[in-house]
Design a protein that fits this description.
The chain crosses the membrane at residues 39-57, 116-134, 146-164, 170-187, 199-216, 262-284, 304-322, 342-359, 365-385, 397-417, 423-443. With 737 residues, the chain is of the alpha+beta class.
Length: 737
């Protein structure tokens, strides 16, 4: 079958003056505008490409953050461990990053320092794939090549800071979008392929892309690819011919060739999805993963109404259409902001109009594109409004989930404007929206405009330079001030993410490697870098008891840097696991010991007990996510329970709580509970949970973990790990999705 874009009605690619040569003044103006636009388009494309490259290699550094830096650091861990899915890495929300930014950094790491330049190379490759996929797919709904190039250039121009961040900076949803568009394009070509060779070619491409998307994250792939594609295939099939035909001779209904082809494509996609899901299930079982945004919950009806408002706010904010509070309405900038707000509101009105036109049209390709774009948009608006998927404390940032569908809907409206022309009101409004979006190149809040505005030096660039100047190579800071400095310093200063619990640093294992927090990772001076707010929550006296006084202290703008003569991971509870002579894993229960109910009783950094009164139920102890070698172990706990009742239970869990290795009830009175369990692999993260049902008071006195066959001693486990680890009954959350 021929390409639908080539079968467009002959008049569609004509200018209005060519399509209806009336010779009047309006037609003359339209023709002049069209010719001028086509003449200027190459310059717009050149500017867009130049601004994009500048943004990726220099302009984005002002917004570069630790989530963006993760792709560099994950690539480094892939090389270090020699496996594409590093065992020590802590994934979040089931995202395996099968085809992501780190993929394009790995080949360069043996030859170049792991710095911001490699992040730019990764972004450039991702951007090329994204824009190429949009070019291919746009032909399904837009007839003329110059119009397709115009709209792709608009998207490639960044539009607004948040849109540029999602598509080209961090590339988080740029990656999602190009996988979605490649799925759509290959699926369409498969549906309309003529001949066995083309069918096998496009069938293989379609299946491979589907396997990759589901291998990375089946839940996300179902939402962005499978469900919209099913809607798109249904739209493609509808209206081509009678889907079921009555065979009088055989006295039966028979499927049309189009319906058989559509069902075959659906079968290929479902089979590929099943393979990808199986690969994901196997891979995720071999690595560390914490659940988060995937654990969505329904909201109340009042929550629906609140989120509906926030969803609209998020869409407007993503396009930079929210006027700055306090701006003079009658100023030039105020008029521009009003125009931009009206344009995006018109865009939202035109999306359903364009969808209805294409879904009722004769072109199967356009129907399929509209089906995918609109169903995807409706799905994510539904999730935004009715579930806890978005964090509406930041509705504009949470609108990132809708970015892929919003971009496709821009192409849908562009195709609609092309068909309707400027003589009809809806067509003229569509063209107006596209021109306002094209003017985003001049928007001061579009990151791409830094190519002519310049940019200030970021605080993290200052930190990387100053830490390196002082000869510091390894240290710790909170998440948003850690990974970013590691990459900006090109690996010369490695800063590992921590959080503060009870005034003391603990590892933040969110999108990080467990190796970073082992004392063996670094020998020599280390530093702790904290901003003003973090310094206020630091318990300096307790920290001094644990690791000693710093040998140097200095500031970098609003950050204080504490320098220690050794790696503080050697002495901080919950970081290092000391072994006693009899083989037990020893460290006292301290004020850092984690619990949902009850209180710690003790002083300073010394050992103590955990006491819970009757009434509240919950975990009197959980954590500490201990790294143990593969083998058999024996756990003993000593608890005080006043009556002969079942007061709770003790269990050993691993894999972020997904696997229960052993469990036993706690029945009073004072009781020593013993458990035997097996750690299946080296450095398994093991968690000890002591649960009280609240029927009677409970006191936890010690926990002893000993390799099988060794004599136990009343030694207790280390203080628990950071809050980024899974908490019983509470999903671990991402700092930024």
């Amino acid at each position: 079958m021929t390409n639908d874009a080539q079968r467009e009605p002959a008049g569609l690619d004509r200018t209005p003056s060519q399509a209806a040569p009336s010779g009047d003044y309006v037609d003359h103006l339209i023709g002049m505008a069209t010719r001028l636009g086509k003449a200027l388009l190459p310059l717009l494309v050149l500017y867009s490409v130049t601004a994009l490259i500048y943004y990726l290699f220099k302009g984005y550094v002002a917004e570069f953050h630790s989530d963006s830096a993760v792709k560099n650091l994950l690539a480094e861990e892939v090389i270090r461990e020699g496996t594409y899915f590093p065992h020590d890495w802590n994934y979040v929300n089931g995202d395996l990053w099968v085809l992501f930014g780190q993929t394009f950094i790995i080949p360069f790491l043996p030859f170049f320092p792991n710095g911001f330049a490699l992040h730019g190379v990764s972004g450039l490759i991702s951007s090329f794939i994204l824009l190429l996929s949009l070019w291919w797919t746009s032909g399904m709904v837009i007839g003329s090549r110059w119009m397709r190039l115009f709209v792709v250039t608009i998207i490639g121009g960044g539009i607004y800071t948040l849109m540029a961040e999602h598509l080209f900076g961090q590339v988080s949803y740029g990656n999602v979008l190009f996988l979605c568009t490649l799925t759509l394009y290959s699926g369409w070509r498969l549906l309309e392929s003529a001949g066995r060779r083309r069918f096998l070619l496009w069938g293989g491409a379609f299946a491979a892309i589907t396997v990759l998307t589901f291998w990375g994250n089946p839940q996300r792939a179902a939402a962005y690819d499978l469900l919209p594609m099913l809607a798109g295939i249904a739209a493609w099939s509808w209206g081509r011919s009678d889907l079921l035909q009555w065979r009088a001779g055989g006295r039966r209904w028979a499927m049309s060739a189009e319906l058989r082809r559509a069902l075959l494509v659906v079968a290929i996609m479902l089979a590929a999805a099943a393979i990808g899901t199986a690969l994901h299930a196997y891979a995720i079982s071999q690595v560390n993963n914490a659940s988060g945004a995937g654990s969505a919950r329904w909201l109340s009806f009042d929550g629906f109404l609140a989120n509906l408002k926030f969803t609209l706010l998020g869409i407007l904010g993503t396009f930079g259409a929210i006027p700055s509070e306090g701006t003079n309405v009658m100023s030039l900038h105020g008029v521009y902001e009003a125009t931009r707000l009206v344009a995006i509101l018109i865009l939202l009105v035109l999306i359903p109009l364009a969808a209805m036109r294409f879904l009722n049209g004769a072109r199967p390709a356009a129907r399929m594109f509209a089906g995918v774009a609109v169903s995807g948009m409706l799905l994510f608006v539904f999730l935004q409004v009715t579930t806890t998927t978005p964090d509406m404390n930041g509705p504009i940032v949470s609108a990132r989930y809708m970015v892929p569908s919003l971009v496709l809907c821009v192409f849908l409206v562009a195709g609609y404007a092309e068909q309707m022309g400027v003589r009809r009101l809806s067509g003229a409004l569509g063209w107006g929206v596209l021109l306002v979006l094209a003017a985003s190149f001049l928007h001061p809040n579009n990151s791409f405009s830094r190519i002519y505005r310049g940019q200030p030096e970021s605080i993290h660039q200052v930190q990387a330079r100053e830490l390196s100047r002082r000869g510091l190579s390894y240290g710790y800071a909170t998440f948003w001030n850690a990974n970013v400095v590691s990459v900006l310093s090109e690996g010369q200063v490695k800063v590992r993410p921590i959080l503060l619990q009870n005034g003391v640093p603990l590892p933040h294992r969110h999108l990080a490697s467990n190796e970073w927090f082992r004392p063996s990772a670094w020998s020599g001076r280390t530093f702790l870098m904290l901003n003003n707010e973090e310094r206020a929550s630091l318990d300096r006296s307790l920290l001094a008891q644990l690791v000693g006084e710093p040998i140097d202290t200095f500031t970098i703008r609003d950050f204080e840097v504490l320098v220690y003569p050794m790696n503080i991971a050697e002495r901080l509870p919950g970081w290092n696991v000391a072994r006693t002579r009899d083989g037990s894993l020893a460290a006292p229960l301290t004020v850092l010991s984690r619990h949902q109910v009850g209180e710690f009783e003790g002083t300073g950094s010394g050992s103590g007990i955990l006491r819970a009164p009757a009434g509240p139920s919950g975990f009197l102890h959980f954590g500490p996510y201990l790294e143990v070698a593969a083998g058999n172990y024996e756990l003993e706990i000593l608890v005080d329970v006043p009556d002969t009742v079942q007061a709770g239970y003790v269990e050993v869990a691993s894999g972020g709580g997904r696997a229960i290795l052993a469990s036993a009830p706690i029945i009073g009175p004072t009781k020593k509970v013993s458990l035997a369990f097996n750690a299946a692999k080296d450095e398994e993260l093991v968690e000890i949970r002591v649960f009280t049902n609240g029927k009677v008071p409970m006191v936890l006195r010690f926990i002893s973990l000993t390799p099988a066959g060794k004599q136990s001693s009343p030694a207790t486990l280390p203080a628990p790990a950071p809050t980024s680890e899974p908490v019983p009954g509470q999903p671990a959350t991402s700092a930024k999705q």
